[in-house]
Amino acid sequence: MKIIYRWLILGLASAILGFVPIRMDAAPYHLLKEIQVGGERKGSSLAIDEKARRLYVSQETQIAIIDLNQERVVGGISNMSGAHGFAIAPSLKFGYYGSGQDGRLHIVNLRGLRTFKRVAVGGDLRTILYEPGRQQIYAFDGMEHCAKAYEADDGDYLSTIHLSGIPGAAVSDPIAGRVYCNMEDKDEVLTINAKTLKVENHWPVAPGTTPSGMAIDAIHHRLFVGCANKLMVMMDSENGRVIATAPIDEGAGANAFDPGTGLVFCSCGKGTVIIAREETADKLAVAQTLTTQPGARTLALDPATHKLYLAAAPFNASAGQSSGTVPGGVKILVYGTDDVATPSK
Questions:
Q1: Strands (DSSP E) along 155-249, which ranges?
Q2: In what order do the strands lie in the sheet with 252-258?
Q3: Domains of the chain, each with CATH number or no CATH
Q4: Distance of alpha carbon 214 from alpha carbon 232, whole angstroms
Q5: pTM for this structure?
Q6: Dist. CA 74–CA 60, nearest whole Å
């Protein structure tokens, strides 16, 4: 009962202060297990369907499916060419990926793992994003410097949104009706109005440069942007003001935010994940530097268990790099604490 009352008090305090309860006594993150996937790491991306308890590992020639409860590969989509990115619409039970070979957006029925529609988008697809508020899919094109928006349920074209530069990571805030996207070569974040499908703001990430990963705390209006100059920037998602920064390692990759703990994660190509804590509205502090594997920059977080999943390939110590094209070499590294949560069924 003391524990229950403790969390009730913390919950009340967080409601007053505007921040979620944070487990100050949580054990450090460490490696829990490895899941062998196979295939090539090139072009890999991770996407979690929390409700269905699935992790999708998108690669060049396949999308492997991992059951998160069993933590093993249970199926996949094969015979693909140039697959890049993967977005999930849980309510529709659809998945979306771009193909660099045919320049199309593929819409997959996740019930039967069958592609039922292919939409010509062209260019260099870099990021695929699902916006749940209006059920839209955004395909970000690095070659044409644009984002093309489609209806998520049937792939019907909506609009082409012209961007200021090369798009990187993107996130959505359905409450605010906005989509945010890094401009890698412009050192800024763009905001897109999900209703009008127009760019509204250009927000500099200075003192950060070359933004890469991005995550959002929609409740407290915070963006977290990993930058190439070894900084993670915390930005106000309502007005673009840079509030705080935290040091990270070389090779900024993906970012993730855990609303259940208030922790922010940034995977780095050097072989670390920087774990920072959103302590107050204007303070971001590094809580742990987690050693992973050099080259492991693709990251996903399961909010139900607070576990981290990173895609990795065999590391060639003599060459000082990952061998991303070794057949059957890709694996998923699973990290967590000793007291990770068990998802409700």
A1: 157-162, 167-173, 178-183, 188-193, 198-204, 211-217, 222-227, 231-236, 242-247
A2: 252-258, 263-268, 272-280, 283-291
A3: 29-38+211-345 (2.130.10.10), 81-204 (2.130.10.10)
A4: 9
A5: 0.88
A6: 19
> What six digits make up the tokens of 197?
């499908």
Query: What are φ and ψ of residue 9, in 5° steps?
Result: -65, -45
Both structure tokens of 305:
């268990």
What amino acid is encoded at 42 in this protein? K
pLDDT tens-digit profile, the chain (345 residues): 333 333 333 343 343 334 444 443 456 999 999 999 876 655 568 999 999 999 999 887 788 999 999 999 999 887 776 677 899 999 999 999 887 777 889 999 999 888 889 998 877 888 899 999 999 999 999 889 999 999 999 999 999 999 999 999 999 999 999 999 999 999 999 999 999 999 999 999 999 999 999 999 999 999 999 999 999 999 999 999 999 999 999 999 999 999 999 999 999 999 999 999 988 878 899 999 999 999 999 999 999 999 999 999 876 555 455 444 455 578 999 999 986 555 654
DSSP string, 71-116: TEEEEEE-S-SSEEEEEEETTTTEEEEEETTTTEEEEEETTTTEEE
